[in-house]
Amino acid sequence: MIKTDVLIIGAGPVGLFAVHQLGIIGLKSEVVDNLDKVGGQCIELYPDKPIYDVPAMPECTGESLTKNLLEQIKPFKTNFHLNERVEEISKDKDNWKIITNKKKIFIAPNIIIAGGVGSFEPRKFSVKGEEKFENKGIFYSIKDKNLFKNKKVSIFGGGDSALDWAIELSKISEVILIHRRNEFRGAKHSSEIVRKLEREKKIKIKTPFQIDSVEGDKKINSIIIKDESGKKEEIKTDFVLGFFGLIMKLGPIAEWGLNLDKKTIPVNTENFQTNKTGIFAIGDICTYPGKLKLILSGFHEGALAARACFKLARPNEKYRFEFTTTSKNMQERLGVKKSD
Ligand SMILES: Cc1cc2nc3c(=O)[nH]c(=O)nc-3n(C[C@H](O)[C@H](O)[C@H](O)COP(=O)(O)OP(=O)(O)OC[C@H]3O[C@@H](n4cnc5c(N)ncnc54)[C@H](O)[C@@H]3O)c2cc1C
Fold first, then answer.
1. Does the predicted TM-score (pTM) go above 0.85?
2. Hey, what long-range contacts does 326-329 have (CB within 8 A, 24 or more apart)?
């Protein structure tokens, strides 16, 4: 069980800056994100695209913004719990009890939801046998490629992830790449490598085919694929990998008894609190009259939510507004070295 002042849901740009705003006023936070990396939409959707409207940064990319935000919160030595989705929250006396899908438990007086457009989740196969084998023989991401060493692996998809993994796994596994179109969507260079590997008999390619079912009892024995005319074919395989891109789902946030407005959470703009005391929402996930879904708005929202968290985390102390330029306390927390 992990006790902290504030549990932040979401490691997008807004969740990351909230760590800073909490840190400088002396509050400790832990961050949970469903993705395997920090940065939210900036990293997942547009790491190389330029951004021109972050204050004092005439130009940055999704990736460089994330790197700078991480650099800025380094002094606070924050723990990130990645690849973990917050599933449940419940009241526990004066605290909130937060449980993730890996059954990790956090106890905190405050929760800041910086969940953006919800959790990014892989688009899955919708065929017989999917649920039975998910995370056993069917995977949508790869954590350790050695699992597939010397095995038969059927890879579905035509984008960059499918092509990159087909190329990579062809070095250690028997790979069959299956796509519903004859042309691949991924980078031209990767498509060319895949075609070359096919000519060298290092990869098998099946197009235009789609999955029809997954067969097996305790483990996968084979898959049935079908072409456009409905003609079916059985392929012996040990593993099935699907790379069909990500979808964004509000996910479990919708089940926590919070007021919702479509897929966003209405907040009080004085402190960004939701309808529940101690639960705040900032960034793309919150809504209020005039809300702009911009990174800079999320930074402001995090600054106000952090000050409101102080009241619940330190009920016997009085919060005093200070500037970082002159506050000795804040500078100590930031690890600023004295120059005299
Ligand atoms: C192509 C594109 C270009 C853009 N360009 C600009 C621009 O130029 N300027 C600008 O200001 N904005 C831009 N934006 C918008 C900007 O990216 C968003 O406003 C910003 O990312 C919102 O940040 P966030 O931290 O609120 O949410 P997100 O970045 O969406 O991060 C939320 C995180 O929360 C996680 N999460 C959600 N639910 C859970 C859960 N239950 N458990 C665990 N984790 C969870 C998600 O996995 C995600 O990582 C652009 C967006 C796109 C798509």
1. no
2. 329/26
